[in-house]
Amino acid sequence: MRTVRTRLTALYVALFAVSGAALLAVTYLLVRGSVAQQRYTGAGSPTGSGARNHSYEGGKPGPPGSGTDIESYRHALDLRRLAVQGTLALAVMTLVAVVVGWLVAGRILRPLRTITRTAQNISAGNLHARLDLPGPDDELKQLGDTFDALLERLDRSFRSQRQFVANASHELRTPLARQRTQIQVALTDPEPTLATLRTAHEQALTANRRQETVIEALLALARSEGGLDRSEPFDLAATAHRTVAARRTLAAEHAVRLDTDLVPAAGTGDPRLVERLVVNLVDNALRHNRPGGHVTLRTRSTDDGTAVLSIANSGPTVAPEDLDRLFQPFQRLGPARTRRDDGLGLGLSIVQAIATAHGATLDVRPRPAGGLTVTVTFPPVGERAPGGSHR
């Protein structure tokens, strides 16, 4: 099998051999030319001996046995010896280059072998393993650091997935157990009446509706995290207007004032997911509020074409260190933050997933008087970042 180490060694040896042969040839030609020049200069010199002037005219060797002929033979012998010895030296150094090239290639490729072994040994159960490659900050070190960053993201993703599955199982198990209990109570009633059966059926339907709500929220979250299947133009102002119109009654039930300042703001993406994002933000602001509170929804478009949606609501005070928990599925900050018990803990998780799918930036800040201010900034039309973020 021709490994990368073998190919690198062969390339290194080939380059060394070609360079060495070229250097030997150039040296040979230079020495031969220098010898010929010396012989020619010696033949034409006025101070030369009479025998040399007689036997070496015009730089040509004299007759056999003359001094010039012997000197020419000696120079030719020296040139031949230079060629033979240089070739032998080049052959020996080429063998040395094979050994040195093999060792150097192995040393250079050692980080790649480390990465390969780590990748082969990694499974879903030991994603915590890291390379931590030593050495200078070169291309191989950057490759190792990139691999470690990939493992870190995978580790977080797997841990989040396991936690999500556990929480989702719990959320689905609770209404199922409640529904089963209600049915069992109705079945064990020795003297059931129409009223008791109706009550049992209504309670079972309530539990069933909660199951349906949880499943729909999970599907929305999964679809958001899966990315966009299509990209169409949308207007944040129109989407927000429809959402607010459908939530006026709910706001009145909560005794919360719902104000709007909607300026056309164009964007591109999945209009259904964007509408779900706005609905979740408004529902979250209404649910986690107080009687006599307010919700203010604004849309605008900046000079560079970005569409901005912001919503501010009154409500309980949220500590800055608790903001990250709001974006984790099924996480709630406690019963004191909400007056209703119909929240699933998925609202802001879905909002974050939708924002990430659209390359939008999600900015969440606690208000000093209580409540939150959430700002979603979509990229300009025709541009979409590889992923959004929240801060």
UniProtKB/TrEMBL annotation:
Instruction: Enumerate composition-biased segments (Polar residues).
Output: 41-52
List the keywords (alphabetical).
Kinase, Membrane, Phosphoprotein, Transferase, Transmembrane, Transmembrane helix, Two-component regulatory system
Q: What's its EC? A: 2.7.13.3
**Catalytic reactions of this protein:** ATP + protein L-histidine = ADP + protein N-phospho-L-histidine
Write out the ranges of the annotated region (Disordered). 41-70
Chain segments annotated as transmembrane: 12-31, 82-105
What GO annotations for molecular function exist for this entry? kinase activity
Record-annotated HAMP domain positions = 106-159
Q: InterPro entries per the record?
A: HAMP_dom, HATPase_C_sf, HATPase_dom, His_kinase_dom, HisK_dim/P_dom, HisK_dim/P_sf, Sig_transdc_His_kin-like_C, TCS_sensor_his_kinase
Name it. Answer: histidine kinase
The uppermost taxa in this organism's lineage are: Bacteria, Bacillati, Actinomycetota, Actinomycetes, Kitasatosporales
